[in-house]
Write a structure and sequence with these properties.
heterodimer, A: Rubrerythrin, domain 2, three-stranded antiparallel beta sheet, two-stranded antiparallel sheet, 5 strands, 10% helix, B: alpha+beta, five-stranded antiparallel beta sheet, four-stranded antiparallel beta sheet, 3 helices, elongated
Chain lengths: 61, 151
């Protein structure tokens, strides 16, 4: 099964509800991929406004 | 925040995401100071790695299938910032432009753009070959622009 991205927080998740923001608006149509390992030290995480480690999509349709 | 640079890892085409996942897994397991990995859709065959030094990235990719090498030199965030905000797929497509559909049931057909919806990233086209003009709405990334100017 293709992974789904949360339309709210752009996090790539398994399951039907986003465990982070609680949103159920998910999409299989997403593009760009970011893995944040250390959000405190990462400048990419800072630019994207990401505060939690994990996998994210850059664009969610 | 300590000093950090962006390093570029060359990978096999279409294996960028799996390489990024593997690097992330190894970085967590072996405590390498890798902070983030970026895989933009427009950059085929490369993964961008945020780390303080190239040696860390070089060590982390050892033994990872499909990860080939670290490209010499480092980039700063300003040089890769444009990858973080992908452009809408309909940018560069104007009303009146001639496009070719590149996927779907009308693949290979030529058409003229009638309407562009930037928010939905969709365009409405009319096929040249059709007997009667029927508007068809397709995704912006499912067409190739043949001529931009209105004629």
């Amino acid at each position: 099964m293709t992974d789904q991205a949360c339309r709210e927080c752009h996090r790539i998740i398994e399951g039907q509800v986003c465990p982070i923001c609680g949103g159920a608006s998910l999409s299989k149509d997403w593009g760009g991929y970011v893995v944040i390992i250390d959000p405190k030290e990462s400048i990419i995480a800072q630019k994207l406004g990401i505060k939690l480690p994990g996998k994210y999509a850059l664009k969610v349709r | 925040m300590s000093e950090t640079s962006i390093f570029v890892v060359k990978t096999t085409a279409n294996q960028e995401r799996s390489v990024a996942n593997m690097i992330a897994q190894i970085a967590r397991k072996d405590k390498y100071d890798i902070r983030a990995l970026l895989v933009p859709d427009v950059l085929k065959g490369y993964v961008l790695v945020e780390a303080p030094a190239p040696e860390i990235v070089d060590q982390a990719i050892q033994g990872i299938p499909h990860a080939r090498s670290v490209i010499k030199g480092a980039s700063n965030i300003n040089e890769v910032e444009h990858f973080l905000t992908p452009k809408p797929a309909v940018i560069g497509i104007n009303e009146g432009a001639v496009v070719e559909l590149i996927s779907g049931p009308f693949k290979g057909e030529k058409a003229r753009v009638k309407r562009v919806d930037v928010a939905k990233e969709e365009i409405t086209v009319e096929l040249f070959e059709a007997m009667v003009p029927i508007p068809i709405t397709v995704r912006g990334d499912h067409v190739r622009v043949l001529s931009k100017e209105e004629s």
